[in-house]
């Protein structure tokens, strides 16, 4: 695996290094020793799947509040998504800034998203599957979010969403 920093401290692009032959390829998606050696210790305890039937589906911008904040490794296993990490850590030099990557089944890229960073994505193809590996068990009542289109962040989404949940559409503007 190749680990590359992004514009947001702690948000890391993780690329596979496939071994190819006539059958296709084989690639490691997660190895605790490799994450540790790269300076990003991560031990997932939960995996989740987000299936998105329609292109233009927006999910986000989500995070878990302390003491149940989560570190997530997010990857697309079918389709394509514009994946966004938004820094909400008030003590961070990149507070209120965002970074994005196209995650796809073809490129095999993942984003490692640390505590205090909100996450969301917009599907670019129908039938896009997003897999999450998470370092904490989900704790109801600690989920939170901010508006996907909040002018405080000016996220440059590649298109307007066609599908968005009422909860995601109703998040308040960020006021810090």
* Parts with pLDDT < 50 across at least 5 consecutive residues: none
User: How many structural domains are formed by the residues?
Assistant: 1
CATH architecture classification name: Sandwich
CATH homologous superfamily (4th level) name: Jelly Rolls
Verbal overview:
The protein is mainly beta. It has a single domain (2-17, 27-163), classed as Jelly Rolls, CATH 2.60.120.10. Helix content is 6%, strand content 42%. It has helices at 32-37, 166-169, and strands at 2-5, 12-15, 19-21, 24-26, 46-52, 57-64, 72-78, 80-87, 98-104, 110-113, 117-123, 128-134, 143-145, 163-164. Strand 1 and strand 2 form a beta hairpin. The termini are far apart. The mean pLDDT is 96.
Keywords:
176 residues; mainly beta; Jelly Rolls; 6-stranded antiparallel β-sheet; 6-stranded mixed β-sheet; 2 helices
Present the secondary structure layout.
Elements: E1 2-5, E2 12-15, E3 19-21, E4 24-26, H1 32-37, E5 46-52, E6 57-64, E7 72-78, E8 80-87, E9 98-104, E10 110-113, E11 117-123, E12 128-134, E13 143-145, E14 163-164, H2 166-169
Parallel strand pairs: 6-14
Antiparallel strand pairs: 1-2, 2-10, 3-4, 5-12, 6-11, 6-13, 7-10, 7-12, 8-9, 8-11
Can you describe this structure in just a few lines?
The protein is mostly beta strands. The chain has two helices and 14 strands, in the order ββββαββββββββββα.
């Amino acid at each position: 695996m190749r680990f590359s920093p992004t514009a947001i401290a702690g948000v890391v692009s993780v690329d596979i290094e496939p071994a190819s032959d006539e059958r296709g390829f084989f690639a490691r998606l997660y190895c605790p020793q490799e994450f540790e050696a790269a300076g990003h210790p991560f031990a997932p305890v939960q995996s989740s799947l987000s299936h998105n039937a329609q292109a233009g589906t927006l999910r986000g911008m989500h995070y878990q509040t302390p003491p149940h904040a989560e570190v997530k490794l997010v990857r697309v296993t079918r389709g394509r998504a514009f994946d966004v990490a938004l820094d909400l850590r008030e003590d961070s030099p990149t507070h209120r800034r965002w970074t994005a990557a196209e995650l796809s089944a073809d490129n095999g890229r993942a984003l490692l998203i640390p505590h205090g960073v909100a996450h969301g994505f917009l599907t670019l193809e129908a039938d896009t599957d997003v897999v999450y590996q998470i370092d904490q068990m989900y704790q109801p009542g600690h989920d939170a979010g901010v508006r996907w289109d909040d002018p405080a962040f000016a996220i440059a989404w590649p298109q307007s969403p066609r599908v968005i949940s009422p909860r995601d559409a109703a998040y308040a503007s960020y006021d810090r």
